[in-house]
Amino acid sequence: MSQVYSKSPKDCASKESFINTDNFKYKKLFCVFSTFFTSLISFILLIWLILHPSKPQFSLKEADIYLLNLSNSHLLNSSIQLTLFSKNPNQKVGIYYDQIQAYAAYKGQQITVDTSIPPFYQGHQESNLLTASLVGTGLPVAPSFAYEVGRDQTAGKLVLNVKVNGKLRWKVGTWVSGRYRFNVNCVAVMAFGPNIPPPLSARQGTLCSTSL
């Protein structure tokens, strides 16, 4: 003999009411968190749009080439000293420079290894002088390198590119942004000839281009 269990309408209504209440609580909690995160993102975006930080400014104050010599047909030894001027143009935004590296290039070829510059914080409208010694030992270069240098020596000038790249963060009050990669390109034009003794120098204070 089998037994048949029956549930009264009252029991079913009670269970359905419990499920509906539980679902309502989850939906309410989800709405609260969604509203909170949306408001937070909107607030951060509003601050960003109001302040809209300008890119940092760089200029090349001085560059001196002490050594630029091929040890054989394709290996280069180099030594370059440079001084950079860095400025934060923002009135309400500070800048953390977390990583900075510099190197020199000639005719599209890297002629020194990457050299690290110590990280630092730059306050509102603050300026800093950055110095670095760039060197290269036995760096491979294109077969045309010696020809290009000789042609520039005949022309009486040498064009050097100083490249700076790294990562920075913006600081607004106590809020600090994520990291942004930046790239700087500076062009130095130096007098160059057979009768000009080293170092070859550029001191014209060239303004550099900066991209984020």
UniProtKB/TrEMBL annotation:
<keyword id="KW-1133">Transmembrane helix</keyword>
<dbReference type="GO" id="GO:0098542">
    <property type="term" value="P:defense response to other organism"/>
</dbReference>
<dbReference type="InterPro" id="IPR044839">
    <property type="entry name" value="NDR1-like"/>
</dbReference>
<protein>
    <recommendedName>
        <fullName>Late embryogenesis abundant protein LEA-2 subgroup domain-containing protein</fullName>
    </recommendedName>
</protein>
<keyword id="KW-0812">Transmembrane</keyword>
<dbReference type="InterPro" id="IPR004864">
    <property type="entry name" value="LEA_2"/>
</dbReference>
<feature type="domain" description="Late embryogenesis abundant protein LEA-2 subgroup">
    <location>
        <begin position="86"/>
        <end position="186"/>
    </location>
</feature>
<keyword id="KW-0472">Membrane</keyword>
<dbReference type="GO" id="GO:0009506">
    <property type="term" value="C:plasmodesma"/>
</dbReference>
<feature type="transmembrane region" description="Helical">
    <location>
        <begin position="29"/>
        <end position="51"/>
    </location>
</feature>
<dbReference type="GO" id="GO:0005886">
    <property type="term" value="C:plasma membrane"/>
</dbReference>
<dbReference type="Pfam" id="PF03168">
    <property type="entry name" value="LEA_2"/>
</dbReference>
